[in-house]
Amino acid sequence: MNVNRAVQRIIWRGTLFLLFLSAAPLHSQWFYYGRNKVQYTDFKWQVLKTDHFDIYYYPEMEELAEQGAYFAEKSYAYLENKFNLTITRRIPLIFYSSHLHFQQTNITPGHIPEGVGGFFEFLKGRVVIPANGNLNLFRKVIQHELVHVFMHSKVYYANKEHGRFDGTYPPLWFVEGLAEYWSSPWDAQAEMVIKDAVLNNYIVPLSRLYSIAGSYTMYKEGQAIIKFVAENYGEEKILLLMDNIWKYNKFSQVWKDVIGKSYKEFDKEWMYYLKKKYYPKLKQYDFSRIVARTIVEKGYSFKPAYYKDEDGEKLVFVGNRTGYSNIFMKEVNLLEPERKVSPKVKILVKGGRSSDFESFHLFSSKIDVSRDGRLAFSSKAGEHDALYFFDIKQEKIIRKYQWDDIVGISSPSFSRDGSRVVFSGLGFNGYKDIYLLDLQSEELIRITNDIYEDNAPGFSPDGRKITYSSDRTMFGQEWCYNIFVHDLDTHLTYYVTAGRSQDYTPTWSPDGQYIAFTSDRDSSLNIWVADVSGVDKWGDDSYLNIPLRQVSFFTNAAFDPEWVDDDNICFTVYENNRFQIRNLDKIRERIEESPKQEPNTPLFANRHWRPGKLAGNKVLSKLKYKKDYNLDIAQTQVSQDPFWGTNGGALLAFTDLLGNDQYYILLYNNAQSRSDFLRSINFALTKVSLGKRTNHAYGVFRYSGRFFNFKDDYFYEDRVGAFFTISYPFSHFERLEFSSNFSYSDKEITGGNRRFAYLSSNFVSYVHDNSIWSYTGPVEGVRYNISVGNTFDVRYSNVNYWTFLADLRYYFRLRPKLTYASRYLALMNDGRETRYYYLGGSWDMRGYRRWSIRGEKIVFTSHELRFPFIEYLGIKFPFLSMVFPGIRGALFFDAGNAWDGNNYDGLLGSLGYGFRFNFGGFLVFRLDIGKRIEDNFSRFSKDWFTQFFFGWDF
């Protein structure tokens, strides 16, 4: 993933800082929300230097860092040959042992979702990667991101050598597609995505691939296109696409030159190839919706767990229907399908809204329900994952477990009697092992303890054995997983499956005769069964007597089988670009009649693979990390205003390599004449520290010049001082902030008096934000900010006023695409030399001129009903095609007013309708049409108003 948001964020922070100094009330109204990136962990960074890399890691993961160093050097040698390029600079690699640690990085300012496996940041050429317990994935992501490093250098030098410093850069599909193609072979997951897109007719041709930019489908389509080019046109064409990029302004022209076909001409060949490849599969395989019963259709649903009580059968599952992830329960009749049941889906546990249930790990963690109705699941809760137990009947959490040395928890599973739970735990060192928790004694027992990834454990019906999936097989270096059984009496582990395949999520049938699992043995992910009924006593050769049979033959992918009884299995299916839950019946009949049966591959030795490590003379040195600051960005700007004259300035930003310490230098001049040049020099020097949980910033500033506000009219002010601010995040959603500012102020109002003051301003804020956004603004959740502060002159007592702010915003999802949004705002300050607050304009009181309503006190409320107006908008010209996410509509009602002292004169308001249109993902066009409500809500205005503006919905 390429990351360039850092540049935009630095510029934005500098702008906000200047805005804060010159117009603090405006800043406090609009820029005080957002979720927190919490630095829970105090990392003790060290540096491992190899021939080509500076690898940053912490001591707990030293062995993992050495393995990563080995992978990186091997990848460098491979890619140096592929790109025909040597990178002379040293490449910084920053390793994290887990994704939860990776989410704390300050190298990128944005929040990192679970689906991101690493990124390349091009300003300093940094590569940031978490291991997360999977060595093969760790190796693949290292190579994936190094492809970006090589490509960036290749394209840069190709343009530079021909004098093009603003040259063409490849589109995202090519950037990510090549990184996928040169980092891992074509696998079942890639096959799953492309095959599903072709057979369900949503495959996007190359000429329109921009319409799905950034999606996972784009990654895999890009990989498939480059694979097709390499196999049919020669791999040398891939290099030529980069070598010749300097010739043209558009990559499509480069493509035409190198491949010899335009995008549309290539599409004819490409689409025909895909249809010939995948359409014949329908002769042998079926869509799962045809042969299996759909249980959960809406949204994205995963990890089914079957549960039966006196009220009937139920299916508990994890899903995402509106943007938040929840744990749901649905009544079903799997054993008696003729009986009618309510289709209603009930939310058991709400996720993504609080620090207790921040993330349910939808793709990687199963859930389980005991026979007495206890739900076991894991969720991110602060620094580490927590293991939760939820009583379904009482609808409440009854137990919560966290351990300091276990960072991640996944796939908890009950024993049949409900007294024990096994789960997969990710340690601080980055290795994933199996743990057993005795719920009576609360004793935690570690079952495995090694470098291998052990996933999805489950008890046998008699409770004496555990089955799980692991890459500890001798084929593990080829990214293979096999199923294993661990005997709790003898503490010995045995193969259940053996071979070059990926076998996942094993689960024992209730009678103990079969183990169902997901496997890619037929190049797709389908459900297989291992018949263990003939194993009387487990031994090293038992796997040779275990026949394997395929019981599902789907064109799409099936995951996470869950036995309902001895003859029914529920599973997750990927079909038509969605994840649904279905039920497959007559399992025993399918086993007996299975046309595809396989024996296990004989093993010549019961040994496991061992990944390499960089040791001996290959390791140049290991050092403690020392902060080294480099320039991130230098930006200058000159503007001309017909009234204020010429303004010019510059912003410089310096950060250390890990992004924890950041320095900003802001310098500008707003002189209107040559004589004012020296007295109009403005500057601010700021240091921001983000490496600890408590973030803080401090700095000094001086700003002077001629300004205007509606209370003082035109005035000249010279202010110099220092500030300090501190922020403590309680969680991803809540924080407490304190800021203090001390300055000397010399202020002269035009035609008025001159005032001197030594100003001290102190503010405390409590901020909460768990909202989720659509493409024009928030659609669900709660945001609020409550702030109080005081500003006073410590020497002359010329200034002394207090300030209070309360801004509450609620978003209620009435339907999946229908939201009711409401906002309640109170702004008050009182005392000597108070500031004005403002209403008016598209962001608050619509129908009134911007800032036309002003006063020392404000009350305001706004309500909107947000709905889709046009779902999809495509515009096609003879020379250009554009696709947009559509237009949203809104019905709105605003009410409020501003006043001084006790001179409140009633409410003003407006109501009407509007449209919002997102352009390019970063700019929202807003059009509002309505009528004003005037004279203390006694009448409507005669005329309709129309307001056009830019900005997100509140």
How would you describe this protein?
- There is one protein chain.
- This protein is an alpha+beta fold and 954 residues long.
- It contains 13 helices and 54 strands.
- The strands form 10 sheets. The protein has an 18-stranded antiparallel sheet that branches. The chain has a 7-stranded mixed sheet with strand order 1-5-6-4-3-2-32. A 5-stranded antiparallel sheet has the order 24-25-26-27-31, with no helix packed on it.
- A hairpin with a 2-residue loop joins strand 43 (800-815) and strand 44.
- Helix 5 crosses helix 6 (172-181) and helix 6 packs across helix 8.
- The model is unreliable at 1-31 and 640-645 (pLDDT under 50).
Characterize the overall form. Answer: globular
Count of DSSP-assigned helices: 13
Name the structural class. Answer: alpha+beta
Largest sheet, in brief, is: 18 strands, antiparallel
Q: Roughly how many Å is the radius of gyration?
A: 31 Å
Intertermini distance: 30 Å
Name the beta content range.
35-45%
Mean pLDDT: 89
The tally of beta strands, per DSSP, is 54
Low-confidence stretches: 1-31, 640-645
